[in-house]
Every structure is written in structure tokens, then in C-alpha cells.
Design goal:
Elements: E1 8-11, H1 14-23, E2 31-32, E3 40-43, E4 48-51, H2 65-79, E5 84-92, E6 103-111, H3 119-126, H4 135-140, E7 144-150, H5 158-166, E8 169-173, H6 176-186, E9 190-199, H7 206-235
Parallel strand pairs: 1-4, 1-5, 5-9, 6-7, 7-8
Antiparallel strand pairs: 2-3, 3-4, 6-9
The site of S-adenosyl-L-homocysteine (SAH) has 18 residues, from strand 5, strand 8, strand 9 and helix 7.
């Protein structure tokens, strides 16, 4: 199936997803993906967007790894997408050329906080999931290519930072690797597209940076998502899956 036939975008926060939906003309009513979960989906004939929804007890967006996996699984089973894009905001790294609003496209995808000091489980913990090779498209759109790294915290421990340095992570988020794992099970091509809201190796707190830069980053993200989808739709057949 050509990659651009009907891609699925998976997102965690409504404030990130609203501008993407509007840029992609996905303004129809959403549908729930499962009665027990808040995950929802917007569909058109050529693109779909799935969102985790709000946590039913805490009333906030269901960010982090578990909801991302559930939403991805339900959405993949429903729409059988040609490609899955984990889209959202992320932390970047000054020491690797990161800046606020920078758009990053994955060429690899790991977990940085699944530390399992048992030989047989170490590689399983790190993940290193298959990512489809969109290098030429990414470069032509001015995106930074590199490793996207996922953990279940907004901040980072020393051990997390060491792990992320080992594969030169350019974007730190809380969902991508989880989505990637589901895609691997379903053998669906995967990538992650992230806009930088905060710089992990800066003196300012991640939470403060996140709040002040959220709007500019989400605007960049929605533009970038549209550009990527358009280019994949016109050139997608040339791109092979890398495992
Ligand atoms: N402060 C926000 C919550 C943001 S949580 C609020 O109150 O609404 C962070 C979300 O943005 C996650 O979905 C994650 O994928 C992404 N993110 C942005 N910067 C990040 C960083 N430095 N580390 C991890 N996740 C980050």
C-alpha cells in the first residue's frame, strides 16, 4: 500500500491536535474508538487523526505511554492506515542543535527510562523500534532527522540523559515509542513528527518553557504535519520500510 494512501496521526493533547485538525480539514464530528476508553478519531477519505482523550478521573489529557498504545491499537484496527505518525510536542537538546519551534522527524525511536539490568531484557527495554525511512522527504522540508526518545516523565534523570546521549536523541517525548511498538505488532509503517517546546539541557525548568512556547510549537507542528502528509501523498510510493 502506498504510504500516503491513508495515514493516521496519533496525538496526546487536545491543544496540540486542534490546530492540526483545522489545517487538515478534519472538522467533522469525532467518534469514540471503544466504550471503555476516551480515545476518539476524526476520519476523512485520505487522512485520520486519533486522540487519547481526557482521563475520566483526573480530567486532563491522557498523556504518556499507556493511553498512546491503546489509542494506536484501536485506531489501527479500525482504519488499517498506510502509515502511523506520532505527532506532538517534545523536549529538544541545545547540544544537538535543538531550538524552540524546531520540527524533528524520527529516524529511530527508543524508550530512555525502561532500565532493566538483566541481559536478556536490556534491548527489549530500550525498544529501538522500526521507523520508516522518510529521510529525503524530511530533509526537503527542513526537518531535523534523528532519534525520538520516550519516557513517562516530563523531566529527566541523569540515567535518562546518559541513555539519550548514547543514541543522540533530538526529541524527548512521552508517547512515540509506545505508538511505535503497536505499529511493529501490526506491521504498519511508523514515524514520529515532533515540534520542540522546551530544551532539556537549559537552565529554565521544562514545565515553564513548555507553557511559554506551547503555542509557537503547536503552530509549527500543524504546518509541518500538513507539509509531510502532502508530500507523502504525492511521493509516498518510493519509500521503503526499514526494519
Ligand atoms: N504542562 C502540560 C502537560 C505537558 S506534558 C499541561 O499542563 O497541559 C508533556 C506533553 O508534551 C507530553 O504529551 C509529551 O509527549 C510532550 N512533551 C513536551 N516536552 C516534553 C519533554 N521535555 N519531555 C517529555 N515530554 C514532553
Amino acid at each position: 500500500m502506498p504510504l500516503g494512501e491513508r495515514p493516521l496521526i496519533v496525538m496526546a493533547m487536545e491543544a496540540e491536535a486542534a490546530p492540526v485538525r483545522s489545517t487538515l480539514n478534519l472538522e467533522t464530528q469525532s467518534e469514540k474508538l471503544h466504550p471503555a476508553f476516551t480515545s476518539e478519531i476524526w476520519e476523512s477519505t485520505h487522512v485520520c487523526l486519533a486522540l487519547n482523550g481526557q482521563d475520566q478521573r483526573y480530567g486532563v489529557d491522557s498523556i504518556a505511554s499507556q493511553p498512546a498504545a491503546i489509542t494506536s491499537m484501536l485506531a489501527i484496527e479500525r482504519v488499517r492506515p498506510s502509515l502511523v505518525i506520532s505527532a506532538g510536542t517534545a523536549g529538544g537538546f541545545v547540544k544537538r542543535g535543538g531550538h524552540i519551534g524546531q520540527v524533528c522527524l524520527a529516524d529511530s525511536c527508543y524508550f530512555h527510562d525502561r532500565r532493566i539490568q538483566l541481559e536478556a531484557f536490556e534491548a527489549y527495554g530500550n525498544g529501538n523500534y522500526p521507523v520508516v525511512d522518510l529521510g529525503d522527504i524530511g530533509k526537503s522540508l527542513g526537518f531535523q532527522l534523528g532519534a525520538v526518545s520516550t519516557g513517562n516523565a516530563l523531566d529527566a534523570t541523569e540515567a535518562d540523559l546518559v541513555r539519550m546521549d548514547s543514541y543522540q536523541a533530538i526529541a524527548k517525548d512521552m508517547e512515540a515509542a509506545s505508538v511505535a511498538w503497536i505499529c511493529e505488532q501490526f506491521n504498519v509503517p511508523f514515524t514520529a513528527l515532533k515540534a520542540i517546546t522546551d530544551l532539556v539541557d537549559s537552565d529554565e525548568s521544562t514545565a515553564e518553557q513548555f507553557v511559554s512556547n506551547f503555542e509557537i510549537a503547536t503552530q509549527r507542528l500543524s504546518d509541518a504535519t500538513k507539509e509531510l502528509i502532502e508530500l507523502i501523498t504525492t511521493e509516498g510510493e518510493d519509500y521503503a520500510i526499514r526494519t
